[in-house]
């Protein structure tokens, strides 16, 4: 951006007090008003200042749109030089691109559109984005801005960036509300089956981008087979949801349309359950996946890793162990459990105790912890398959511990 020691420098005035991180003015209102007065006075007294460009090709109007300047300031710059709305930077960005990126008000966007409506059709050189792409990828995009841009050029909804993203891909990736997604989808319903350069459908984007349930539901109604689509890495939308700690409601919606998605392995050999455990998904999600396909607990990925290699919560680890040990064959070999020290590094005393217990059972060790201690630990955490494992190895423990025979249920 331009530098100048002159206090009246238009670029300096436009940037004064603006925090690029929060996209807000970090100065008192009185000081901000004084700065606006200086800008208005300068643009009226010396209208040629609106024609200036910095080394990147930015005009004062670009600066105004990137710093959330008031409508009064933007209008003054447009009055001084109407063609400022048509100017592009070295990256081919118009002032409208800047306004859409930085959450400008509807009034500012409308003022720019009134002067140069064709700015809606300009793609920048930073990814080939239209202003519509920018607003859908920005912070808290407003429905009224999206609607204003689409009103001028409805086909903007069909345009893709250099990465193959439509505005809908960005909206679904960016946790946008249903109103924004619906406005775009109504204009371009075919987008629901369109993939970007990574092979992501809108549903992949929504599941990766923490989209709300109502957005995911609309996409599923529009194209139920979206749950079966694989991206370039072999991920289903369920893989994406499980990787990002999606809530149970979203995971359940995906499972209801294609339960066998739990069995799909991506290019790394990971099932959705692998991704859920690796991403520390909540217990109810892991439980839902296991209820559909319990044998997922035995699957190895391409690196030879089972679910037990993931750093999950202790509650999830207990659930996995309970499911795994329910099969009597799994009590004969620990091949799928990384009980060696180089693979397992416990984070809590309970985790260490759990794996010490399993190590002793698989290796017929009877001390530190003892079978009685193992049994008490498993009962405390309701690891009933583990209790059955102890009884397999030490059947006489029922008498020595005076256990209720109900505990022996397998």
TrEMBL record:
Alphabetical GO biological process terms: actin filament bundle assembly
One family name in Pfam for this protein: Ank
Keywords tagged on the record: ANK repeat, Repeat
Entry GO MF terms: actin filament binding
SUPFAM superfamilies (UniProt xref): Ankyrin repeat
Domain of life according to the entry: Eukaryota
A Gene Ontology cellular-component term: cytoplasm
PANTHER family registered for this protein in UniProt: ESPIN (PTHR24153), FORKED, ISOFORM F (PTHR24153:SF8)
Name by which UniProt lists this protein: Uncharacterized protein
